[in-house]
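Example S7 (C-alpha cells).
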C-alpha cells in the first residue's frame, strides 16, 4: 500500500465549511511506499570523481523503499503463516481467519468514516461482516447475498432509530461498509468451499501478492518516472503497473496450468484481471483515505498500516477471482 503523510482528520463541521477544497489534492511531502515507485534524489552539485571540491558532477539517483522494509517483511511472513497453516490443514479455520480480518477491517472503516462526519452503526456491521463469509462457505452465493441484505436492514434500522439529521449520508456509508468489507470477503470464502478450495485460494492470493511485489520491484528499479495517478497515489507509476502485470501473468499462468489443471492462457487472463482489480482496490482506498485526511486505516501492522491497508486489493479482487477460477476450473 502506498503510504501517505500524516494529516489531521477533518470533523463533520470543517468538511462542510470547505466545499471548494479539493479532497484529492496531494500533500506536497508525500512519500513513496509499498508496491510504489521510488523517489529520485539528485544533488545539485557534487564532488567530481577525482574529489575536486566545488566542481559540479552528474546527479546521482538515490533509491528509497519508502517504508520500514524489515518490519513489513516480518509482518508479511507472519500473516502468511496465519493464512497458509489453516488453509492447508483445516479449511474452516481459514474462514475463521477471514472473519477475524473483516471484523477488524470493518471497525477501521467505520472509525475512518466517523472521522469524516458519517455515523454508520458499528455493532451490526461487524456482526454482518463476520456472518457473511460463514454463510458463504456453508451455503453458497445465495446465502451470501441474503446475509448482506439482512446486515443492511438491521444496520439501517439501528441508524434510523437515532437522530434524523444526516440519515441519508449515514445509510450510504452503512451500505458501503457492508459491501466493501464483509460481502467482498465472502467471495474468498466461496473460493474455499470446494474440495480443492485450498488450491483455489492459493492461486487467488499468490496472484494478488505477485501484483504487489512485481509493482514494488519494478517501481524501485525503474525510478517510477511516469506517475499512474499522482493526485490519488503519488507513489504509483506506470512502470510499477507494468511490473505488476508481468508478475501476475506469470504467477497466474503457472498456478492455473500446473496447480489447478487449467490452461496456461486462462491463468494469464486471470493475471491480467487481477492486476486491474488489485490496482483499482489500492487506488480506491488511497482516494478514500485522502478524502478523509488520514495516512493509514490503522496502525495494527508495523510497516503496513491497518488491516484494511492489506485487504484493499484482496477484497476488490476476490469476486473476480472467484468468477474466473470457477469458470475455468468448475468445482467438482
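Recovered sequence:
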Amino acid at each position: 500500500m502506498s503510504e501517505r503523510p500524516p494529516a489531521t482528520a477533518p470533523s463533520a463541521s470543517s468538511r462542510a465549511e470547505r466545499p471548494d477544497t479539493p479532497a484529492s489534492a496531494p500533500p506536497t511531502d508525500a512519500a513513496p511506499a509499498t508496491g510504489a515507485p521510488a523517489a529520485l534524489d539528485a544533488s545539485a552539485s557534487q564532488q567530481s570523481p577525482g574529489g575536486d571540491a566545488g566542481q559540479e558532477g552528474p546527479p546521482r539517483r538515490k533509491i528509497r523503499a519508502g517504508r520500514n522494509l524489515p518490519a513489513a517483511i516480518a509482518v508479511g511472513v507472519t500473516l502468511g503463516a496465519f493464512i497458509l497453516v489453516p488453509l492447508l490443514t483445516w479449511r474452516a479455520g481459514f474462514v475463521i481467519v477471514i472473519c477475524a480480518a473483516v471484523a477488524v477491517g470493518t471497525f477501521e472503516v467505520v472509525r475512518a468514516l466517523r472521522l469524516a462526519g458519517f455515523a454508520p452503526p458499528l455493532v451490526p456491521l461487524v456482526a454482518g461482516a463476520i456472518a457473511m463469509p460463514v454463510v458463504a462457505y456453508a451455503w453458497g452465493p445465495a446465502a451470501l447475498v441474503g446475509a448482506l441484505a439482512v446486515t443492511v436492514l438491521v444496520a439501517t434500522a439501528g441508524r434510523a432509530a437515532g437522530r434524523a439529521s444526516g440519515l441519508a449520508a449515514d445509510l450510504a456509508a452503512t451500505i458501503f461498509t457492508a459491501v466493501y468489507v464483509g460481502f467482498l470477503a465472502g467471495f474468498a470464502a466461496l473460493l474455499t468451499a470446494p474440495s480443492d478450495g485450498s488450491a483455489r485460494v492459493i492461486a487467488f492470493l499468490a496472484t494478488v501478492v505477485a501484483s504487489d511485489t512485481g509493482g514494488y520491484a519494478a517501481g524501485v528499479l525503474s525510478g517510477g518516472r511516469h506517475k499512474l495517478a499522482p493526485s490519488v497515489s503519488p507513489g504509483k507509476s506506470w512502470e510499477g503497473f507494468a511490473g505488476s502485470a508481468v508478475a501476475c501473468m506469470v504467477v497466474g499462468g503457472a498456478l492455473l496450468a500446473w496447480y489447478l489443471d487449467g490452461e496456461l492462457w486462462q491463468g494469464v487472463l486471470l493475471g491480467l484481471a487481477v492486476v486491474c482489480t488489485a490496482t483499482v482496490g489500492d487506488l480506491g482506498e488511497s482516494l478514500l483515505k485522502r478524502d478523509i485526511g488520514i495516512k493509514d486505516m490503522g496502525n495494527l501492522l508495523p510497516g503496513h498500516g491497518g488491516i484494511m491497508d492489506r485487504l484493499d486489493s484482496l477484497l476488490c479482487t476476490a469476486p473476480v477471482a472467484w468468477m474466473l477460477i470457477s469458470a475455468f476450473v468448475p468445482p467438482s
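Notes on this example. Residues 1-65 have pLDDT under 50 and may be disordered.
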